[in-house]
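INFO  loader      accepted 1 record
INFO  loader      residues=173
INFO  predictor   begin
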Amino acid sequence: MTLFGLIGGKQRERQAGNGPARAPAQAAPGTAISYDAGLVPRLTQEHRKLLGIYQQLQLAVTKTDVAAIQQRLREFRGMLQEHLLQENVKLYVYLARHLAGDQASSELVSDMRREMMGIGRVVMDFLRKYTDSPMSPGQVLEFKKELDAIGAALVQRIEREESALYSLYLESY
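INFO  predictor   done
INFO  writer      dumping tokens
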């Protein structure tokens, strides 16, 4: 799927809080992290925002607008850090405990967590490289090549999270 298809595509609808009253959510075994019916919709919405900032970055690159590039990079960096923290603490920890008895699902979650940590490191290094020091107009071509590669990896990752990982996030009873 393309970046534009992912941004404009239909989002999965999840019911949160509708219907009959439910018992309070139980924490994942061995943690104080409870199921949060709003987590997946929030994470999915954050994906759309991150991809929107990415589109703005691409536009700034086509205009060789270094100031706009660096502003969008700072926005992207802040949002990505928050997003990764939420996924790591609220999603992965919950899933690891919740799915402990399901070897195949546990392995998928563990593999995706490791993969995301690697992607996160690469993306954060990229963001530091271009936000910690001023960028010259001459660096924009090199930046664009790296940005395109980062974008392709993120789109692939978001598709996998939303299709495979988020569907595992279910309430414990």
